[in-house]
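Quick note —
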Amino acid sequence: MKPKKILVISDIPSHPQSAGNRARIYSFLSCLKRLGHEVHFVYENKEMARTEPEKPDIKAMKKAWDRVYTIPLNSYVIYHFFDKQIGRFGIFLKKTCPKIYEILKKSERKFKIKRPPSVDDLYNPALDRFVKKLSKRGEFDIVLAQYVFQSKALTHFDDRVLKIIDTHDALTNEEAIKSNEFFKGYIIYPREEEVKALNRADIIIAIQDKEKEFFSRLTKKKVVTIGHIIKPYKPIKRKSHRKNIFFIGFSHPTNKYGMDFFIKEAFPKIQSKYPGAKLIIAGKISNFAPNQKEIIKLGRVKNIEKAYSLADIVISPLFFGTGLKIKNIEALAHCKPLITTNFGAIGLEKAKNKAFLIANTSEQFIKQIERLFKSKKLYEKLSKKACNFIKQYNKENLEVLKRVFETKP
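Predicted structure written out below.
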């Protein structure tokens, strides 16, 4: 296979990998590098406008990829982050700086923002101009947009360039949006906007099969599934005296809901039966955990392998959201016995009740944890099957990735 020159366009940094989408981007592009491709990364720095910014590590990004271009945040885009229709930041600004908020709201007429919203509302004109200049060089074989929100960049490339969107999740899945409290306050896009974005690409990448089916109903373009490819680790023998339950996550509403559910509904009963049990919480979500002796808050972790070495059992009590649960892939890659919900198992159905256990209620979480605490045989069996599953999962996804990037425009 002849190496390709790939242009990646993203407003999510690849470093540090402090959230699932960042880990996804880093893993995906690392695979392309290992296959011999050349990766040029156009990064639009929107982090300062996000509700909970995590400073991008530009130096590490430049070290990882062949070339990195950074595009500063445009005032046009800043306005949209302030608009309360975009989400929580507008509400925050209204409370803290009402005068600035009112000025920005009044300026809406100047921008002539259409409602219902467009997937291009957050597309930076400065980024557009820059990508247009790059396209004129005619040096790229493939252009890869991260999320549909960057899809407009694809329109600047002709038919000699293969155009791909890595969707990460489904934007207009009304069933998920309308059925969950989590989505209140978030912007809801018309279905035709997602269709418009998808049709700009030659190939659509879904992160799990259910979303592949969803996208296939929206567009006639080729849709493939490429999950989260991750380095597998060697299993570590459990210390028999230790009973550490581990949960990791970014400060996202889905994680907070799951953490609160487990701490309130399940953990007290586990403690009463197993006084030595501890709950270890890693990532920014630990900032929202209560201060209790039996709850250890690690905060943001730089060494993910070291954090997982503290875990005996990994829990993932997730009940809503979109995409693929990257944290579940990570737990399996670290060969840890994982307990998650039916929702958390989406995209990993082959391994359900084989490489990991399912629990959907507090009673079920307690029961599954007790099983693992009591049975060394079950513990080691799950650990081994998790390792084997992730190796096969990686192999299957890497094969699809290879085929996609060998495709001719």
